[in-house]
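The authors assume throughout that readers already know how a fold can be written as discrete tokens. The format is easy to grasp once an entry is in front of the reader. For illustration, here is how one protein appears when written out as sequence plus structure tokens:
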Amino acid sequence: QVQLVESGGGLVQPGGSLRLSCAASGNIVRINVMGWYRQAPGKQRELVATIASDGSTNDADSVKGRFTISRDNAKKAVYLQMNSLNPEDTAVYYCNAEIRIRNFLLPSEYWGQGTQVTVSS
């Protein structure tokens, strides 16, 4: 009953920028933590950044100073501004959110389908 849809992925040259968006929809009461994860071919999925409902953030060391996570609670959306991209950033990026839905006491974790980011010259 909850869906997360990512957008904004694509092909970009090294040093370039890209902005990812993720919108949540469904019978949502509250969205707690939202975040971005990524998975490169042959590698495990890894944390990129998270943002809590109060706006506090946590970033992976590999993206600190280059990526910025933000959210719009009114739009139930989370964004990832990616600057100074390098080939090591190439991966499928997944939106993640901990969400409480109507008539359910406990929140659950949801994932988007993913959006491809390719950094290449």
User: Anything to note?
Assistant: The two ends are 40 Å apart (CA to CA). The longest strand covers residues 28-39.
